[in-house]
Design a protein that fits this description.
Helix 2 crosses helix 14, helix 9 packs antiparallel against helix 10 (270-293) and helix 12 crosses helix 14. It contains 14 helices and two strands. The chain is 63% helix and 2% strand. It is an all-alpha fold and 385 residues long. It is globular, with a radius of gyration of 22 Å. The two termini are 29 Å apart. It has one domain (3-294). A two-stranded antiparallel sheet has the order 1-2. The model is unreliable at 1-14 (pLDDT under 50).
Length: 385
């Protein structure tokens, strides 16, 4: 079937690049850097993850990025197909990009010592790579919205069934023999301990583990459905209104479902998927209305475009910089002190609370990361994977 025929069958039209999407990506990556840099255990509650069930504003950030990945898959695929690229070439390109993302995630986890005996295999970039790979191939094979809805329903309901009714080896059935979604005695944690013992983020479990990547794929699919909606033959105002309405519905539905399947970022529960996608839709619809419809771009969007157009570069740089500050030591009064410890002591002054000092440290970290990324943006250098 020709490309034009595919677009007609999917009900899609070619759309210009969305500045609002770059702004949303930039805001998301900046906040990922913000919450990833702090002094010890000092933080303001909005800038830390919920300890288990429930959520904070920080818990909305990573899902927002996966949601953006889903939208980008549709826009990128449609753009390249319209230029005459074959599906086979796009699939090969998808495998290459996913492999690079996964590799960068391993570099972040191992830098600078790279102890292969304890190297964490899971990670944020690794999850992005897997979700990007599966979602991209699925979209290239079938570009209909209906197939995405069916797969999404199967993922969310299937994950709920696995976590609720499948016995956890050595512990029993959740809700009967053990508490439902017990932090260490759940199917996802059990699987991760079996596959990668000694390589998990939280020792007995991992927030980016194997099984919880399945509902994370659901987050990406919801982004793909949004991308398909944006490519549809509707007016810009209709698209903005539709996204906002679906976002509000998602927040309400996720909150309600959370009474039976608790909202939990560590396990990426199905209710968490629906709720966070709802928040992403609300925020993005407002940005889409302000930036792409009302054309309110002067001044305030610049910083976010700097981060948004080199998002992965900014994220990788921030992690390598933080690891370097931990690794470099100097002698201070006969004691070996890392650069990070020295900087922390400088920020922990007496005139502010430790939590506020930690926030200042995080903001300074963002500024330091911003400088090289702004230089790349000024030189029109966009590092693509």
């Amino acid at each position: 079937m020709s490309i034009a025929g595919d677009e007609q069958a999917a009900g899609l039209i070619r759309a210009p690049r969305l500045v609002s999407l770059d702004v949303f990506r930039g805001i998301t990556i900046a906040f990922m850097i913000l919450v990833g840099n702090r002094i010890g255990d000092y933080y303001y509650w909005p800038l830390d993850h919920a300890p288990w069930n429930g959520y904070t504003p920080t818990d909305l950030i990573f899902p927002a990025f996966l949601f953006i990945v889903g939208i980008t898959i549709v826009f990128s695929s449609e753009s390249r197909l319209s230029r005459g690229d074959s599906r086979a070439s796009l699939i090969l390109h998808t495998f290459r990009r996913a492999a690079i993302l996964f590799f960068l995630g391993l570099v972040i986890n191992g830098f600078p010592y790279f102890d292969l005996s304890t190297l964490r295999i899971y990670g944020v970039l690794q999850r992005i790579a897997i979700c990007f790979l599966v979602a991209s191939i699925w979209y290239l094979l079938d570009r209909r919205a209906s197939s995405k809805i069916v797969l999404l329903a199967a993922i969310l309901l299937g994950y709920w069934f696995l976590m609720r009714w499948v016995p956890v080896p050595g512990f029993g059935v959740p809700g009967r023999d053990i508490p439902f979604l017990d932090p260490s005695r759940n199917l996802a944690a059990c699987l991760d301990r079996h596959v990668f013992p000694g390589r998990l983020y939280d020792t007995v479990r991992d927030p980016e583990g194997i099984l919880s990547t399945l509902p994370a794929l659901g987050t990406t699919i919801l982004g793909m459905l949004t991308g398909i909606w944006l490519h549809s033959k509707r007016s810009a105002s209709q698209k903005a209104a539709g996204m906002f309405a679906c976002g509000v519905a998602g927040i309400l539905l996720g909150t309600i479902w959370g009474h039976w399947f608790p909202i939990n970022k560590n396990l990426w529960t199905s209710s968490f998927v629906v709720l966070t996608a709802g928040w992403s839709l609300v925020v993005f619809s407002l940005l889409y209305w302000a930036v792409d419809i009302k054309n309110w771009k002067r001044g305030w969007t610049y910083v976010w475009l700097v981060f948004g157009t080199n998002a992965i570069t900014a994220y990788v740089f921030s992690h390598l910089l933080a690891a370097t500050l931990f690794a470099i030591h100097r002698n201070h009064g006969g004691v070996s002190v890392s650069v990070y410890q020295s900087l922390s002591a400088m920020f922990l002054v007496k005139t502010f609370t430790p939590n506020f000092d930690s926030l200042l440290y995080a903001l300074c970290s963002i500024f330091v990361c911003y400088l090289p990324i702004a230089w790349l943006y000024h030189k029109k250098i966009f590092l693509k994977i």
